[in-house]
Amino acid sequence: MAGGKNRVRFSKLYTWAGCFRPQSPLERQQSMSVGGPGFSRVVFCNKSEMHLQKPYRYKSNYVSTTKYNAVTFLPKALFEQFRRVANMYFLLAAILALTPVSPYSAASLIAPLVFVVGVSMCKEALEDWRRFIQDNEINNRKVKIHVGGGKFEEREWKKVKVGDIVKVEKDNFFPADLLMLSSSFPDGVCYVETMNLDGETNLKLKKSLDRTYELDGDEEFEKFEGKIRCEDPNSSLYTFVGNLEYGGDVLPLGPQQILLRDSKLRNTPFIYGVVIFSGHETKVMQNATDPPSKRSRIERKMDKIIYLLFLVLLFISVVGSIAFAARTKFDMPNWWYLQPDNTTMYYDPNQAVLSGLLHLITALILYGYLIPISLYVSIELVKVLQARFINNDIQMYHRDTDQPARARTSNLNEELGQIDTILSDKTGTLTCNQMEFIKCSIAGTAYGRGVTEVEKATARRLGKDPRQLEDASITEDRESSSIGGEGSDVEMRPMSSNSHVKGYNLKDERLQDGNWMHQPNAEEIRMFLRILAVCHTAIPEVDDATGTITYEAESPDEASFVVAARELGFEFLKRNQNSVIVKEPGPNGVPMEREYKILNLLEFNSTRKRMSVVVKDESGQIILMCKGADSIIYDRLGRNGKQYWNATKAHLAKYGDAGLRTLAISYRVLEESEYEQWNATFTKAKTTIGSDRDELLDKASDLIERDLFLVGATAVEDKLQQGVPECIDRLAQAGLKIWVLTGDKQETAINIGFACSLLRQGMHQIIVGLETPEMRAIEENGDKNQIAKAARDSITSQIEAGNQQIKLDTEDDNPHALIIDGKSLMYALEDGLKQELLKLATQCASVICCRVSPKQKAMITKLVKEGTGKATLGIGDGANDVGMIQEADIGVGISGVEGMQAVMASDFSIAQFKFLERLLIVHGHWCYKRIALMIVYFFYKNITFGLTLFYYEAFTTFSGQTAYNDWYTSLFNVFFTSLPVIALGVFEQDVSSRVCLQFPALYQQGPKNMFFTWSRILGWMANGVYSSVVAFFFTTAAFEIEAYRNDGQLAGIEELGAAMYTCVVWVVNVQVAMALSYFTWIQHVFIWGSIALWYLFVVVYGSINPTLSTTAYKVFVETLVNSPMYWFITILVPIACVLPYAVYQGYQRMFHPMDHHLIQEIHYLQKHITDPDMYKQERTKAVQKTHQGFSSRVKASMTMQETKQRFYGDGHLQGTSEKNDSLPRHVDSLLESPLINGDKAPHNNFAFRV
C-alpha cells in the first residue's frame, strides 16, 4: 500500500469526461430523481444483514445458466419429450394397451416408450449437468469480504451479499456490481478492463468519490457506514443514477464510480467497493436471456411428417373399422362356425357400430408402427456420436491454448448445415486484441515492408508466394528513393532475425539501429518519433526482476505507438505528476533523457476524432502535438503544413487497402502569449459545471488545433486471428452472409471490416447515424420528446434514402455496405421501422453494427432470424455476446483467453474463428445430409413394415389379427434395422472433408434444404408403399401354392408371417446399402450383420417353449429352411423392391445430376483428366458469387485495373482483349488444380490438406 501512495496522481493527467461514455441529453432526460419509480433501491453499506428482511431482501449472488434444477427437471424434461407428437401418440397407445382391445401386450408398448423417453431425458440431464459444473466454477471463485472489526476473509462469490464491502485485487474479476469506495492509489482511481461487457480491450479509468478515497486500508472499514439510494436493476451498461448518504452528506453517484460484474481490475493493486447489485440483478446478467429451448428446422418439420403419417394411420384405421363393422353386421350371421349368437360386443352383429368403434382403437394401436417410436432415440444417439466426431476433430484443435472444439449440445448438429447468416462479434472473435505498428509515412516517404494478413491472403488467392511481397517492397523502396533523388547511404540488406516485440513489426533498415539519423529528412523523423513517445496517456510499469518496461494504455493502438517509438530510439521512461521523461538520441546520437512538461491534454472522442497534448520542452518551447483521423487533420493544416500531404495521402490509401488502421501525425509550435490566452479559455471550459461542459471543451480545443504541420502517418495492423481472412472468404464462397456486431466505435469497426475484407475499396457505404449538426442542435434544447421524435424521423429518412440509393444503383457493379451505430438502432429496431431496416440490410453485401449493447445484439439477431425465416449463427467470446448467442439458431462461443461466459451459453465452442469454416462447411454439411437421409429412410422402412400389417388385416377381413409375432414387431426397430440407420447417420459422407472445402458451394444444399423437401419426403414414402405392396403380395402369392406339412396343409400364419418378415428385413437393409455413398467396414458389419441377427434370433427364439415363443416355435428350422420357395422369394422380393430406386438413381445421375453427383464422378472416375471441361465447369460453380472476402476484393481490384487500362492504357485499342483476359485466366487456372485425387497441390488458396 505504501508503494501505491508514492505513485503518480492520475487525476493530474486525465479529465474524467473521457474515462467513460458521457450521457447524451436524451439519457440525461431519462435520469429521474432518486426515490421515484425505477429508482427505489436502498443499500445499507457494511450491513448486509439488513437485506435479509423485507422490503430490502435482494437476490443472492448465485448465478445459474442451466435449463433445469432439481425441482423443475422432471416436469420440464417430460414436457420437452412429450411435445414431440410421436411420443405423445405412443403414450396414448401405451395407456390403451392396458385395455382388452389392444392387439399387443402392454409390456411390448410401454417398455419401448420408457426406454426412448428415458434415454432422451438422461441426455438432457447430462448436458445440463455440464452447464451446472461450469456455473459452479464461477460461483466458487474467491473474493475478500469484510467480516467485521476491519478484517477481510476470502469467501466464495455465491456468498457475496448486497451491502458487503469487498476487496478486489489486481487481475481479478469483480464478483458483483460495486460502488467503488477507494483504491491503492491516493487519488482513488483504478484501471478496469470491460472486454466481457462491451468487447473493448482498452482500459477504462474509474474514480471513487473524494469523500471515500481515503478509505484505503482494511482497518478503515471497521466503523464505516453509509446508505445508497439508486436505480433499480436494469440492463444499461453505461448509465447509473444514485446517491450515497455518508457522514451527513448526500453525494451524487454516476457511472464513473460503478464497477460492473465480469469486468476486470487491471494495473491497480486493489480496490474496495460495496455491493449494489448481485447475481441476476447485475447489469451483465440483466443483459442475458434465459437459456432457450432450441429445436432444429428438420426436427420441427419432422413433427409435420408425423402429423401426416398419423392422418394416414387414422384414415386406414377408419377404413378398416368401417369394413369390419359392415362385415360384422352383414356377414357375421352367416359364419356359423364363429357362433354369432354367442359372442362378445367385439363381434356382435347386433352392435356393429360399437364393434367398429372398438376395432378402431385396435387398429390405431395395430398400425402404430407407421410412426417410428425409435426414430427420436436413434436420432439422439446419432447426434451424440456426431458430436463426438466434432469434439475429436484434430483439425479444430488449437494447440496453443489446448482447446478442442466442443459440441455443448448435440440437438442442433444438422442446423450447422443450414446457416444463412453469421452474426459475429469483433474483439476477441475476429481479432487477437493485438495491435502491431507495421508501417509509417514520414515526410512523404513510406517506411516499412511488413506484410499484413490481408495482403498475404490476397497473394495466396492470386497464386503468389507471400514471401515475395517483401522483396517487391524492397525494390519499391529503392525505386522511390532513386526517383525522388534522395540518396541514402543505408544498404538494403536482409533483416536480422531478432525476437518479435509485441506491438511492433516494422521492418525497414532506413529507420532501425539509428539509421534514420542519416536520412535526408532526419529532423522530420525525429519529430515524428518524439510525438509518438510523448502524445499519449500510457503508464509505464517497470518489472523489478528484469528491469524491462511495459506500458498500460487506454487502447492497444496507443500502446503500439509507444512501443514503436521505443524500438526506434525514443523510449518513454516514466511519467511524473505533470511531465513525461523520454530517453532519446541527442544531436550526436548519444541517448539522453529529456523531460517534457505536460501543460494540457486534449482528449480523443468520437466527435473530435483526434487527440492532442500541449508540452513545454527543456528549452522552453511550447509545442502542440496532435494525432488523429487524416480527414480531420487535413482540415486543420496550415498553409505551410501541407508540404507532404499529397504523398502521405497516397500512402494512406495504400495502407487502407491493406487493412491497416491509420492516423495522421502533426504538430505546431506555439508562442508563449498565444498559449497563455488560449489556456485561460480552456481552463474556464474545464472548470465549468453543467451539461455544456464537453461542448465548451471541444470548442476551446478547436481554437488551438489550427495551422498544424503534417509530419506523417502511422499504419497499425489490428492483428486478426490467424486464418480469419481465409475463413471469411471461404464462408462467403459457401454463400453465407456475415454481419459484424461490435461494441467498438465506428472507425474501429470499419477498419476491421477492411482488414477482414468484409469492406473494400469501391463499396458504397451507407452510414446511418445521429451524429449530425441538426441532431446536436436539437439535443442542446434537452426536450426529451422532441429529441426522440427528431431522432426517429432522422433514422427513418436515412433508411429510406439507403433503400432508394440501392434501387438507383442497380446498374452499378459495386456492392453496398450498411454501417449503423447503437444509438440509431435504439430507434431503428422499433416495431414501425425494423422491417425497413431489415430490408435495407439484406440488400447490402456487408452489415456492420457498432457501439451496440448486448441487448441490441440479441434484438438484431432476433430480427434477422424472424424477419428472413432463415437460420442464423451468433458467434462471440465475451459476456456481452451471450444474448446474441442464445437468440441465434446456433450459438458458437470462442473459448478465448478472457472469460468463459460465451462458451457457457453456447451450443458449440471453438478456440479460433477460423475453425468456424470447418465446423460449418464440413461438419454442418455432413450432419445435415446424414440426418435428412436418416429421417426419410426411417419413415420409408416403417411404412414398408407397417403397411404389410394393414394388408394382412384386409386379407383377414380386418379381424384385428397381427401377421407377426409380438416380439418380431417389438424388435424390428431395435435390433434388425437400427444399426444400419445409425451407421448411416454417423459415417455417411457424400464427399470428403477436403472436397467440401474445395467446393464450398456444396454447402448451399443445406440452406436450400435440398435433401429434406416435401417432394423428397413423399418420394421416399411412395417407395415405402411400393416396397410394402411387393413384399406382401409376392409373399402371399408364393405361399398359396406350396404345402409345408406332411399332411399337405398349406402355410399358416406362422410361416407366412416369418417369411414376410424376412423379406422386409432384407428389403430395408438392402435399401440402406443402396442409399449410402460412403462405405466402411462398420457399415458392412451393421447392414449384413443385422440380417444375420434376424436368422439367429428366429432360430434361438423358435427353440424356446411354445408358451413363450408362440407362433415362432421352430417355424424356421422345421418349415422355412427346407422350402425352396422361401429362399426364392427372399432373393426375389428385395431385388424387385430396390429396382425402381436403382433405375431412378441411374436416370438422375445420367440426365439430371446434382452437384455432389458430378463431384463424386470427378473424384472416383478422374474426370479432371478425362473430361477437363466438365471439371472446369464444376470448379466455376464451386463458389457462390459474393461481395465479401478477399476473393471479391481481388476480383474488384482486377476489374479496376482492367478499366484503367481500357481508358488510360497506351495499348487499349490493340491489347485490350489480351489484358482483360490475362488476370482472370490466371485466377481460373488456379481453380483447375487436380486436388480431388489427392495429388500434390500447388500453392494457392484451395490447397487444403484436411
UniProtKB/TrEMBL annotation:
It comes from the Eukaryota. Mg(2+) binds at residues 425, 427, 877, 881. It catalyses: ATP + H2O + phospholipidSide 1 = ADP + phosphate + phospholipidSide 2. ATP binds at residues 425-427, 558, 604, 627, 661, 742-744, 851, 857, 880-881. Residues 44-108 form the P-type ATPase N-terminal domain. Residues 458-501 are annotated as: Disordered. The chain crosses the membrane at residues 85-103, 305-326, 357-379, 931-952, 967-987, 1017-1039, 1059-1078, 1085-1104, 1124-1144. Keywords: ATP-binding, Magnesium, Membrane, Metal-binding, Nucleotide-binding, Translocase, Transmembrane, Transmembrane helix. Residues 903-1153 form the P-type ATPase C-terminal domain. GO terms for biological process: phospholipid translocation. InterPro entries: ATPase_P-typ_cyto_dom_N, ATPase_P-typ_P_site, ATPase_P-typ_TM_dom_sf, ATPase_P-typ_transduc_dom_A_sf, HAD-like_sf, HAD_sf, P-type_ATPase_IV, P-type_ATPase_N. It is an enzyme of class 7 (translocase). One of its GO terms (cellular component) is plasma membrane. Its cofactor is Mg(2+). It is a multi-pass membrane protein. Residues 458-480 have a biased composition (Basic and acidic residues). SUPFAM superfamilies: Calcium ATPase, transduction domain A, Calcium ATPase, transmembrane domain M, HAD-like, Metal cation-transporting ATPase, ATP-binding domain N. GO terms for molecular function: ATP binding; ATP hydrolysis activity; ATPase-coupled intramembrane lipid transporter activity; magnesium ion binding. Pfam families: Cation_ATPase (PF13246), PhoLip_ATPase_C (PF16212), PhoLip_ATPase_N (PF16209). Its EC number is 7.6.2.1. The active site is at residue 425. Its main location: membrane. Gene3D superfamilies: Calcium-transporting ATPase, cytoplasmic domain N (3.40.1110.10), Calcium-transporting ATPase, cytoplasmic transduction domain A (2.70.150.10), HAD superfamily/HAD-like (3.40.50.1000). NCBIfam families: ATPase-Plipid (TIGR01652), ATPase_P-type (TIGR01494). Belongs to the cation transport ATPase (P-type) (TC 3.A.3) family. Type IV subfamily. This is Phospholipid-transporting ATPase. It comes from Physcomitrium patens. The lineage of its organism: Eukaryota, Viridiplantae, Streptophyta, Embryophyta, Bryophyta.
